[in-house]
Amino acid sequence: MIALGPREKVFVVVNGIRQGMFMKSTDRAKPVLLFLHGGPGMPELFLDRTHPTGLENDFTVCWWEQRGAGVSYSRDIPGESMTTEQLICDTIAVTDHLRERFDREQIYLLGHSWGSFLGIQAAARAPERYRAYVGMGQVAHQQRSEVLAYEYALARFREAGDERMVRRLEAAPVVMDAPLPRTYMQVRDAAMHRLGVGTTRDMKSVVAGVFVPVWRTPGYTVREKIAIGRGKAFSRGVMWDEFMATDLTTKVTELQLPVYFCHGRHDHTCSYDLARSYFRRLRAPLKGFTTFEQSAHSPAFEEPVRFRRVLREDVLGGATGLADAEG
Prior knowledge:
The chain is α/β, with parallel strands linked by helices. The chain contains 12 helices and 8 strands. The chain has helices at about 45-50, 85-100, 115-125, 140-160, 165-170, 180-195, 205-215, 220-245, 250, 270-280, 300, 305-315, and strands at about 5-15, 15-25, 30-35, 60-65, 105-110, 130-135, 260-265, 285-290. Strands 1-2-4-3-5-6-7-8 form an 8-stranded mixed β-sheet, sandwiched between helices. Helix 10 (about 270-280) links the parallel strand 7 (about 260-265) and strand 8 (about 285-290). The protein is globular and about 60 Å long.
């Protein structure tokens, strides 16, 4: 038996790189859940403090910080190892570590945003390791999602008469057949959060909603808090273009395990409409799509009571009773 307190910080070597994770649980006998954070390169432990999920009451949760991110960031990580393929392999390796540590044949996999991009590919490659896959803010084709988000934001700011923001957006058009303009990336997060369609409905500033809470999150050393910002820049710099270009609707068309999408109605970070369309086309032995009407990009953090109920009753129960009727 391995002792596990309410929270434990662990470092393991994953495919040759020292990587860190936080384990949270009220009872190690509960099912194991691997949480794949977004980004690329943006750990989400801080959100579980500002917007508590309570997931540790139903699961033994592993908040793994991916290669190049947070406590797993190092300047010594080869840039050429920062690929989707490598991170999928890392996901499966971390899965095997958890299976061995907690003596489980299978665990549950939850991917959020960029984490859903990795997660659905890991689940497709190694379905025998997972009881179910849950995609929150599920990516479908991120370049197309960015085009839709740009058009939405431009229309909203025009309606509001915000000429300054309109000028900034018009100067950085987003289209399908070109990389996202650098000038758009400089305004993207601010625009989405001002409209309440970013990380959470109530987050209006990345500085106040992300960077300040990161610095207030216990469990990180000062060096590790600095590494979160560095890791985000490093990871995004080397993996963003591949992320944008990959169309999951043609790459992953079938899963050999139960799959659940949990998506906020107001999510424009990863398009709600694209995720729903992808879900309808995706083949799986059991599927459930649940819309969270009060959420933007992060239902687990925005509507935690309902999210936990979906996981308890549908995901753990192998059912779809709480899923949208039309699927």
